[in-house]
Amino acid sequence: MTAKGATGNGTTAYGAKAYGNWIGGSWRTPEKGHYPVVNPATEQVVGAAPAATPAEVAAAVTAAQAAQDGWSRTDPRERAAVLNRTAELISEHAAELLPLLQAETGATARVTSALHLPMTADRFRRYARGAVEPAVLPLAPHPVQGSPLAPGGLMGAAAVRRPVGVVACITSYNLPLVNLAGKLAPALAMGNAVVAKPAPQDPLCCLSLGPILREAGLPDGVFNIVTGSGPGTGQALVSHPGIDMISFTGSTTVGKQIAEAAGRSMKRTLLELGGKGAAIVLGDADQNVLKSAIRAVGSVWSFHSGQICTAPTRVLVQRALYEKVVAGLQRYARTLIVGDPVDNSTVVGPLISAAQRDRVEAYIAQARAEGARIIVGGTRPDIKPGFYVAPTLIADVDPQSVVAREELFGPVVVALPFEDDEDAVRIANSTSYGLYDYVFSADTARAWAVAARLRSGNVGINTAQRHPETPFGGFKESGVGRDGGSFGLHAYSELQSVVWAS
């Protein structure tokens, strides 16, 4: 992918590479120009993304509509071959994609190289296998009495997964390629066409998927991608009558707006929204369990600076162990190196933007004003340029305070004591979110019982590790629907019942 091939438009007035919208298998120069994408660590312009107009969004949807029927009738083995080849090409282009991905996201070298690109390729491989999973569920023959509707007889039937049609995939800024792959790959595996709209902060690597998928053999128009710096592009996509389904990852506030707009025309939705994960440390936790709990909660700081919706940003500790866990987290936070994400020794990089940094700092200031203890962090690191927030631990927080209830999306952990299991469950369930919680205990049967009472779509017991085949999604205001593993195939398909007389 040369500079011209990658961008389609050369450079902007400020010298950055300028990308077009990817529509119908080729770059389209944007009618209204570009907007700058900024490196969160250097505050320098990385590239220029297209500011798509409603007409350009409509052109992308039209291209997807024209291509979807043919793609849906393609042999599943051919769809699998395209997805496998896409995974190979992503790995082959790693030398070009990795520095761009790191520059636009601000992710550390370790996270970028070990997670972003490998997981993106893995998701395409997984749904290459998914493309050839059985889509027909035979049902046992059933004797049916005659009626005025039809004669009786032995009726056969099958439930068949069919493509939804044209899917709008709107993704988040924290893991742009991974998140898009998690939507795009199962959608394509099931025979859908896609129009993607990545987050405005870091869309450049997502745009680069256009020519990669074309090289992999995807027919023109099956995958299209448009970008914009404000809400207008997404709104045009969500409201377009040619969109059959909306898959969105992002804030609950925006998710509610999408759900309302989708409801007007009964578009299918898959909404993965905010989280305020609780890590519950029960009083029976031994030394090994405590170490696991501290490492898991510490990931709020060490993994992408807490910009993860599943992060255990609340640590709830039974009172007998409370100060011990707080002290352990304090020691852990002080070992973390904050700095330039290009440096291999850096563990905590910047937040995505100045606006997000200021938002997180405002939450910390409010907690301090309300009398909470700032155990570590709480002040801006002396690092310039860049949008940095120090790893921060806030103790003795009221469960009803804003910092304990709202999603901050930054390297901030709040610690709360509890008295017994009943109290822990009450506090954990007290927010409007329910995406991912954790239970740490030496008694796994007790942890299992606590997990059953948590209003959360996912619960980790003594671990923050994931299982890639589990259904992923949230309770309450953390979203609607599930994806992941074979559940992702279900999410991007409609069930059709086919009935016949035996």
Automatic annotation (TrEMBL):
Pfam families, alphabetized: Aldedh
Domain Aldehyde dehydrogenase residue range list: 27-498
Molecular function as annotated in GO: oxidoreductase activity, acting on the aldehyde or oxo group of donors, NAD or NADP as acceptor
InterPro entries in alphabetical order: Ald_DH/histidinol_DH, Ald_DH_C, Ald_DH_N, Aldehyde_DH_dom
This protein's UniProt keywords: Oxidoreductase
Domain of life (superkingdom): Bacteria
Entry keyword annotation includes Oxidoreductase: yes
Keyword Oxidoreductase: yes
Similarity comment text for this entry: Belongs to the aldehyde dehydrogenase family.
Record PANTHER family: ALDEHYDE DEHYDROGENASE, ALDEHYDE DEHYDROGENASE-RELATED
Protein known as: Aldehyde dehydrogenase family protein
